[in-house]
Amino acid sequence: MKRLAPLLAAAGLLATTVPLLSAAQASAAPAAEYTPQTPAWQRCSTDQPASYECATIKVPLDYRRPQGPTIDLAISRMKSENPAKRHGAMLLNPGGPGGPGLDLPLMMNELMPKDVRDQYDLIGFDPRGVGASSPITCGLTGAEQNLDRPYKEETFQADVTWARTVAEKCREKAGSVLPFITTRNTARDMDAIRSALGEKKISYIGYSYGTYLGAVYTQMFPHRTDRFVLDSGVDPQRAWRGMIQVWATEAEPAFKRWTQWTAERAAEYRLGDTPDAVSKTFWDIVARADKQPIEFDGMKLTGDDIRTARAVFFYPSQAAPLVKALKDAADGKPVQLTAPQRKLLNPTAEPASDNGTAVFLAVVCGDTEWPRYPEQYAREAARDKVKYPLYGDFASNIKPCADWRRPIEPATAMKTKTDVLTVQNEWDSQTPLVSGQGLHRALKGSRMVLAQGGEGHGVYLVDPKSCANAPVSSYLTTGRLPAEDVTCQTTPGGTERRAEIAPQSPQRFPALTNGRF
């Protein structure tokens, strides 16, 4: 089954050789000794518009040592074509961590309403360690990058060995850089970009993980924060193990909603005419697959494989036909999958590079402390397999962070009042509603736009029909937050979400489709 790839767990059994930052160092802005370069802009590519420009600047690997080793930071821009209406520069981040962002100006240039687009130079960047910004690798195989592992007592020791092996390979390949691939350092890079552009403040749109990155920036650089939109929120109090565990807790109400939706359409899907009957049908399929894998479109799926598709239940109109196809396959009937269904259930697809996984691990393992001892993971995974049967053991099982080096500085406390706009769908599989609400609570002074009934990960411009688009655009054009939180009604079940557009399309939010944040 396609691993919706994003888990991790635990923190440093090995003490880091990089000293922990003092409180003064941890709160410091990029050091005064560091002088950003003026970007040497040039056309990114001859097959792209001439207005799409790229440059590379150097930033310190370790901002405590501004004259020490540097890394490349690849940036891009599309300038406002209406200087009279220009407000400033807007940085963009698609999520991840590990998502590339150089091409976001191209996409947003096409999608933004003109009155918003006219006001900003759109600035993309590959975060440190990603893509064209001194990319890192752990040398991981496709199998080693599979972070979705069910808990079983008889296989747990193999999971412990896998977690240690991944952590060791990352230290071997990128150990001198890994401690500095963190959210706080990426926020410092954002401020270096601001300085290189000659801007006093920056505006920002960040999706998913980009909400946490943006929130950290507002706390580190509050006086340089302009109009910030944080879309599909990461709860700072849950970073990071708790953000993976929330996938399990919130999959349960999504599953319950799916059973109700499907029971109301019993004549169409024949999975049961009550929610309990639909639930029993699904779990019977899982039990059958655990006893004997189901032959399904050239694949052999176990019950564990099926459970890793927990995200699909946030989209009832997609989940019902998929489960019906699974039932038909289990009953020996011929099945033809659609391309999206095949993509969801493909267990052999391997990423071309481990760069995204390497950065994902570096950030989620390096931002915050994780439990150290395998026994805790075994105990909690066994517990959560019972409490949250769809995904609980996957979420709480051991991951490479259990053997990661300790963070070099504390996580960012959300104490400073900040006038930002948070945006959230009600039914979001990767940053569920409770997570978005946690971000809103943490950021004192923020307002929240909630798309009631909205399905999917990513809202503003990702769903062209979302009721949230108008209030977000209003904020970006005027700089005025709504007087109070906004709840609007969106019709669920739309099929035009731009995150599902084919990879070759420029109108695609890359990190919103990778099953992470």
Helix content: 25-40%
Number of E strands: 12
- Which sequence of strands runs across the widest sheet? 1-2-3-5-4-6-7-10-11-12
Number of helices: 17
Q: How far is the first residue's CA from the last residue's CA? A: 20 Å
- Return the structural class: alpha/beta
What are the segments in which pLDDT stays under 50 over at least 5 consecutive residues?
1-18, 500-510
Envelope shape: globular
- Write down the oligomeric state: single chain
- Series of H and E elements: HEEEEHHEHHEHEHHHEEHHHHHHEHEHE
Structure description:
This protein has 517 residues and is an alpha/beta fold. Helix 6 links the parallel strand 6 and strand 7. The N terminus is likely disordered.
What is the structure about, briefly put?
The chain has 17 helices and twelve strands.
What's the SSE blueprint?
Layout: H1 23-27, E1 42-43, E2 53-60, E3 70-78, E4 88-93, H2 104-111, H3 114-117, E5 120-125, H4 156-174, H5 183-197, E6 202-207, H6 209-220, E7 225-231, H7 241-263, H8 266-269, H9 275-291, E8 294-296, E9 299-301, H10 303-307, H11 316-330, H12 339-344, H13 355-367, H14 374-387, H15 392-396, E10 421-427, H16 433-442, E11 447-455, H17 469-478, E12 486-489
Parallel strand pairs: 4-5, 4-6, 6-7, 7-10, 10-11, 11-12
Antiparallel strand pairs: 1-2, 2-3, 3-5, 8-9
State the main characteristics.
single chain; ten-stranded mixed beta sheet; two-stranded antiparallel sheet; disordered N terminus; globular; 517 residues; alpha/beta; 12 strands
